[in-house]
Specification:
189 residues; alpha/beta; Rossmann fold; five-stranded mixed sheet
Length: 189
Amino acid sequence: MSDLVAGRVTLWAWRHPKPENVAGRCIGRTDVTVPARRAKRLARRIQQAARRHGLAKVVHTSPLQRCALVGRYLRRWGWTHVQDTTLLELNFGSWDGLPWRDIPQDRIDQWCKAFATHAPGDGEALQSLLVRAAAWTPLSPPISHSAVVVAHAGWMLARRWVHEHPQQPPQLAAQWPASPPYGTLWRLP
């Protein structure tokens, strides 16, 4: 399968390593820590895949440390590391970092009923994340038909959603797919 499809870039997108102390919490832009050994392990996997598949040694990450730490390891090994705010996770506003049990159920229900357009915690609506993910292209040379990204689950799901369901945002939360496991690789258009 060619990486060049109708002039598009194929993204080799890995979900960041599992952070610490996130169970049961609403995590979007909260900058949680990830153990260095997990970040280094994922960086090694990315480096091996790049060698095997001839990928450019440029990694794009969000500035949040659960992604950026992987990029910093790769930079130590000769890669270019580009931090890009377009790759950030959904902004949950006042909910961000809170335990889900502390968020009023009626507020969660409002979001679930208008999943694409309601901004949870007065943060960012999913529609905005869908637009960001769909529009993202690598900012740094070398120009290639493939790009390496360390991303958040929401961003990866949004990128896949807009490819599989163009012009059709999810109306209900039940339509949104489950998050990929930590460290998972997806090849995305």
